[in-house]
């Protein structure tokens, strides 16, 4: 991993790439930017143990807990006089860099970057402290070229990036069909074409790919271009649930400022509850946030089906993260990792218990 750069040095690139951010996947291939707006603090808000908390997330529907929580002031309400300094990313590695450098305190991020960040730092930097979203990943294909699952053999299928969450899922699915693909090159019975999500729709329209295993809203964007959903990844998982977004924190920040971490988690839990109780208002709020960040809202034909396919929840679905790691090992993209200690769910369970909700499990991967 390259040396981390201060977030201020990334602002210029972020302005240039603002529009493509809208269609980015669960994080791969670009930089970060500080949000231009500092969240407002209530005049009588009580300051916690730190003046400011740096929070990162992607301008992406699978990160809608952060989008909506900040847009509606639900996170800030819990933080009182401690202000949120939001930063947006469209690359998992960039967010991990910011976390490692101390430029970021808490972030919403996908499972593969979280696993990679944890293992590369030998378990000494981040902790997963909550879930945020499940689902929202689909295999969308050209219906003229692919009419059934068996027709995927011999075709060109895009994923966002080598080794990312969707890439691992596709490689595992291909293996389960009895087909062979070299994970590094993507060559084999299926040609796995690593394509940045912001250009995947154009690649589909040009015919250079026959389909794509991608997250929302890219999947619905492809459907709007005439593609067909051949497979919803949720159908491959028990109870149709698998982690797509987690909340992570720097271990030293958690140790020094547990009150701030707990406040963010309260805000996240309340935001998810509000999203689930008010899906249409929440969808509009998320789209407004995306418009403010990128300059363009998602059209109804994209956001409506995309929104319905994502489940917002507090449970990190820890067992599915462990399974995803095993899939990456099986594909040869990851050495067998020691994930013991990647979770610290005690602060979340404290919040859930106080709210009268069931506590969640770390699948044996919690801190000792």
TrEMBL record:
Keywords: Cell inner membrane, Cell membrane, Membrane, Signal, Transport
Any single GO CC term annotated in Swiss-Prot or TrEMBL for this entry: plasma membrane
PROSITE patterns, A to Z: PROKAR_LIPOPROTEIN
Pfam families (UniProt xref): NMT1_2
InterPro entries: ABC_SsuA_sub-bd, NrtA/CpmA_ABC-bd_dom
Signal sequence region: 1-30
Subcellular location: Cell inner membrane; Periplasm
Molecular function terms, GO-annotated: ATPase-coupled transmembrane transporter activity
Keyword set includes GTP-binding: no
Family: Belongs to the bacterial solute-binding protein SsuA/TauA family.
NCBIfam families (alphabetical): SsuA_fam
PANTHER family linked to this entry: ALIPHATIC SULFONATES-BINDING PROTEIN-RELATED, TAURINE-BINDING PERIPLASMIC PROTEIN
Name under which the protein is recorded: ABC transporter substrate-binding protein
């Amino acid at each position: 991993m390259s040396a981390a750069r201060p977030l201020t040095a990334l602002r210029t690139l972020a302005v240039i790439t603002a529009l493509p951010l809208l269609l980015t996947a669960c994080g791969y291939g670009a930089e970060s930017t500080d949000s231009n707006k500092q969240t407002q603090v209530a005049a009588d808000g009580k300051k916690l143990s730190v003046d400011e908390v740096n929070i990162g997330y992607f301008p992406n529907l699978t990160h809608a807990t952060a989008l909506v929580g900040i847009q509606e002031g639900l996170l800030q309400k819990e933080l009182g006089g401690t202000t949120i300094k939001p930063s947006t990313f469209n690359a998992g590695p960039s967010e991990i860099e910011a976390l490692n450098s101390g430029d970021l305190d808490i972030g919403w991020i996908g499972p593969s970057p979280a696993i990679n960040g944890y293992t590369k730092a030998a378990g000494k930097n981040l902790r997963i402290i909550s879930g945020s979203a499940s689902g929202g990943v689909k295999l969308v294909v050209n219906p003229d070229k692919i009419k059934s699952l068996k027709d995927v053999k011999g075709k060109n299928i895009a994923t966002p990036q080598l080794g990312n969450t969707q890439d691992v899922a596709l490689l595992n699915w291909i293996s389960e069909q009895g087909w062979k693909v070299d994970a590094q090159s993507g060559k084999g019975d299926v040609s796995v074409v690593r394509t940045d999500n912001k250009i995947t729709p154009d690649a589909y329209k040009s015919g250079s790919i026959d389909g794509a295993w991608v997250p929302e809203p890219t999947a619905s964007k492809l459907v709007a271009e005439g593609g067909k959903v051949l497979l919803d990844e949720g159908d491959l998982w028990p109870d149709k649930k698998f982690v797509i977004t987690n909340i992570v924190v720097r271990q030293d920040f958690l140790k020094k400022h547990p009150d701030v971490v707990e406040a963010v988690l309260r805000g996240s839990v309340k935001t998810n509850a509000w999203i689930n109780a008010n899906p249409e208002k929440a969808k509009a709020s998320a789209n407004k946030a995306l418009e403010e960040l990128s300059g363009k809202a998602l059209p109804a034909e994209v956001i409506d089906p995309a929104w319905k396919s994502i489940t917002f929840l507090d449970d990190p679905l820890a067992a599915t993260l462990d399974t995803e790691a095993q899939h990456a090992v099986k594909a040869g993209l990851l050495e067998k990792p020691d994930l013991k200690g990647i979770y610290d769910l005690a602060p979340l369970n404290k919040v859930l218990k106080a709210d009268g909700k069931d506590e969640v499990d770390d699948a044996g991967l919690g801190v000792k």
